[in-house]
Amino acid sequence: MSQFENASLTSEPAVTYDRRFVIQHLALAGTGALLSAPFLAACGGNEKLPANPHSSAPAQPSEPASPEQSEAPQQSNGEFTATPRWEQNFAKMGAGPVDTAVWRHENDPKVPTFNDEEQGYTPKNVLIVPGRGMLIQARKETFRYPNDNAVYKYTSGRVDTRDSFSFEYGKFEAEMILPDGAGAWPAFWFLSANQAHTNKLHPTDKDWGQERFYLHDGEVDGVETSGKQPTLIEATLHTFDQSTEGHITVPDATKNPHVYGVEFAPDELRWTVDGTPYFSRRKPANATPDNWPFMNGNRWYPIFNLAMGGTMGGEITSQGPWTLAVSRATFYDYTGPR
Description:
Structural class: mainly beta
Number of domains: 1
CATH architecture: Sandwich
Helix content: under 10%
Order of helices and strands: HEHEEEEEEEEEEEEEEEEEHE
Shape: globular
Number of helices: 3
Strand content: 25-35%
Largest sheet: 11 strands, mixed
CATH class: Mainly Beta
Distance between the termini: 46 Å
Radius of gyration: 18 Å
CATH topology: Jelly Rolls
Number of strands: 19
């Protein structure tokens, strides 16, 4: 554990990238991901959070990239429960690995190849440090997956709740300190747990081999950053029809914890920092699964990972280790109209 005590922190800005590696995972998920994990803790609320008490600099929304992205996000208006149904308070847990009954480690050797990433994922790169939380650390060291010929220059970690916890609507928040250093690519994001729009297909069907096919189920990126611009937070909604993104600057994102959230409602998605919305996407009038995958019982599960290099991370010119610190992750049920 000592290698985590002096971990440095880093992040990188986001661009559109290829998530084709998800295809096999979605196919394997089946209905098992529909089961909710048992209630793990109860604390906190859904009311608007004040500026983080540990933060010295408020978040600053950036200019929207286009008029399509300039929708003014609305406040939650009590659409979520005040008490979380599901929570992992990592900072208050004992030292050691994450609970594998809740968190699944990514170990597929195909995963890094689709985005030309330079790390392999291992369980040893994800540890809980009391007072700091779940630390996902990338380190410069040679790595090779068993029975795979590719050699990676870095190791890192990726975990998700695909097999233990998913939801249809609700608010999911993660309190994090982001890494700092060119080449790092941290992400907090969501994928479909039950393949609501493609469950009649099998990975051997030819359509699954098509680029972007998995986006019939959608993808929601809560936070992505780049070590070149570690304080520029990117939020993205990927659908089969298009991808749209918003940004906000959090000046001390690599030094102090902030609560990053995504609110999933039937008619709108909202991205928040410390409880304040800064970007949203609303249900289109002609909603279909390919432009609004938040219907027909589609369910979502969270993913945390720290990639190195690749299509978004870019050239790795900083010195590691690099650490994404997640102090807690919390889910609140949706109580609004459907």
